[in-house]
Prior knowledge:
single chain, alpha+beta, 5-stranded antiparallel beta sheet, 11 strands, 50% helix
Amino acid sequence: YQRRVREFLRMFYKVLLLLSLVLISEALIHRLDIKGDSRRRFFIESFGFEEGGLWKFSVKNVKVPKSVECSFVMQKTPSDPSSFSEDSEDPTSFCSNNNVATQDPFAKFSVKDDDKELEFNQTIRGPVFVRGFYRTDFVCCPADQASESFSVSFNLQLIQKNIIRGEDCYLPAGEIFLPTMYGVLFLVWVIVLLIWVVAFMCGAKKVLGIHYLMTILVFLKLCTVCFKAVEQHFLKTNGVPGGWEIIYYIFTFLKGITLFVVVALIGTGWTFLKPFLSDREKNIFLVVIPLQVIDNIALVIIEEQAPGYRAWFTWKDIFLLVDIICCGAILMPIIWSIKHLRDASQADGKAVTNMEKLKLFRQFYLLVVAYIYFTRIIVYLLDATIAFDIKWVCKLCYEVAALLFFCTGYKFRPVENNPYFHVEEDGQELDKKEANTENREDN
Length: 443
């Protein structure tokens, strides 16, 4: 088992190195290189514009069939289309009599074969173009929509920005306040870390290994919020993160893995109820943690790519589903611990102590389920439907949910009167009983 852990750590360091080399992000100045693409329509990007915002793109090395009308279309949309699959709409709905059909307000810029370099721009200014969500699509309308096949190629650079009090702001209208919001949250996490260390860790008579892991987790979360604030500041002012996204993603990666480990270890009762992990608990770690590592890396790489690439939405949905599956898998140790405590509560002289622990485990289980459901589903749905100028509310809801969930660590603080620490004197006998039960179940 120790050998497999060492192999996992070596793989982990290699992954961090690969992650730092792969992440070369163009941020809100988007680049998209399309080669031999046969899709009739695909979504490129969306943006929340304030009055006076600028939409500008340059395209070069265009290769399109002469019999096909190809255009870049910018049009207003009621919600953020980047949250939905590009297959949610019929591509032919954009074409009418071999022409691109759009809804007002819209801007259409046609391209032709062998166009070396073209530049287009559109200012968001009334009465036609008003503030709101705008999406950019590439649409091809062949003469014979039923049978004609074709492919297109081009290189695109898209710049979208708002003008706030005469200064360029590359963040969407609903995310302009994100740098300030994350800065305030950073101060909140500093206070949380100080309270945890000073009030609970320092001077405590019984500090276990899991408490040090919990402290590391809070520190990583603090660093994640800090570097997110810095990244958003550079995105707002320059349109590119200036390399800060690499540091942010590394700390996000470390925080995510540490969170999974801490939740799973608390669920197993490691160092609280027993000093070791059972075989099936080890198997959960050996499967879920590497899978979560791969999933986090894949989601980072996908997020850094433009949605216009083929199958972008499909792969994003797949890895989001994998993330939810991993979250569900770490609930299993909690369920096993609840079952173990329920059985142990029937032993003579231990009913009161074990029932207190059982109550704590049940509360922890419900909190984990609520956190997973809210951050993986509710926040996603909210982000897909909320108004363009209050998109920051989704980020705030996610961060507040994370803060409240981390505060549940108070239930497992290192104090002597915590019922979670009342380990039975004959714990080895109970552990042997649990191991025998697992062997019977496996057989």
